[in-house]
From TrEMBL:
N-acetyltransferase domain: residues covered: 14-186
Domain of life: Bacteria
UniProt protein name: RimJ/RimL family protein N-acetyltransferase
Lineage: Bacteria, Bacillati, Actinomycetota, Actinomycetes, Kitasatosporales
InterPro entries (UniProt xref): Acyl_CoA_acyltransferase (IPR016181), GNAT_dom (IPR000182), N-acetyltransferase (IPR051531)
């Protein structure tokens, strides 16, 4: 499928672009894999109507709110164009614009190739050099070692432990709570 690509960021192997209203099926398919959803919903897929009526409209509204600079972005392999999942770099809905959350959700077929690290590194660089961001944080479940490993490879540091939100108590390992990692612009510049 050919997209009229609205590119946000390029890395060596990936292109990140803004989502469009036509992308619901990509998100539905991504969230239908129990392995992808393991530490997010306990493996439950996201209902297609939730993606269509809530998630995708929110993503697109975010581009307006943050002028296309921040939000959630579709990632594709440059070689062949396959959709591999998404990355996000976004403030809290009502939060300051110089603090952004980093996140990632990749298709299982794309795991283990360093893509999450590569995309996240490029997002940190963009955040701190081009977008006026002062601090980036990321949160995950304590037991999500794959996700924590990426945060640690990015030189983010463990800042806090967080309680499990009530809607995630069904997830395996939720009794161990969550973790929050942070990196400031100064820390990023010093590595
Ligand atoms: C977590 C996720 C983004 C990792 O993506 P990825 O592209 O495979 O990550 P990378 O290849 O860049 O790096 C993975 C690193 O973590 C390691 N790793 C991967 N899975 C791991 C696991 N289950 N436990 C420990 N380490 C793991 C890899 O060995 C690699 O480390 P290395 O480079 O030091 O050898 C991907 O598995 C995913 O999308 N999972 C489902 C959604 C999710 O949980 N998102 C995070 C929610 S907070």
């Amino acid at each position: 499928m050919i997209h009229s690509v609205d590119t946000y960021l390029e890395t060596e192997r990936l292109t990140l672009r803004r989502f469009t209203a036509d992308d619901a099926d990509l998100l539905i398919e991504l969230d239908s894999d129990a392995a992808v959803m393991r530490y997010l919903s306990g493996g439950q897929p996201t209902a297609p109507e939730i993606v269509r009526e809530r998630h995708l409209p929110n993503i697109i509204a975010g581009y307006e709110r943050w002028r296309g600079d921040l939000g959630l972005f579709a990632a594709h392999e440059k070689d062949g164009g396959a959709f591999i999942g998404w990355f996000c770099l976004r403030p809290e809905p009502q939060g300051p614009l110089d603090e952004a959350e980093l996140g990632y959700r990749l298709r299982q077929a794309a795991w283990g190739k360093g893509y999450a690290t590569e995309g996240s590194r490029a997002l940190l660089a963009k955040a701190f050099t081009g977008l006026g961001v002062r601090m980036v944080w990321a949160e995950t479940m304590t037991v999500n070692h794959g996700s924590r490993n990426i945060m640690e490879k990015l030189a983010m540091t463990l800042a806090d432990t967080i309680p499990t939100p009530p809607d995630m108590e069904i997830v395996e390992g939720s009794e161990h709570g969550g973790v929050r990692y942070e990196i400031t612009k100064e820390q990023w510049e010093q590595q």
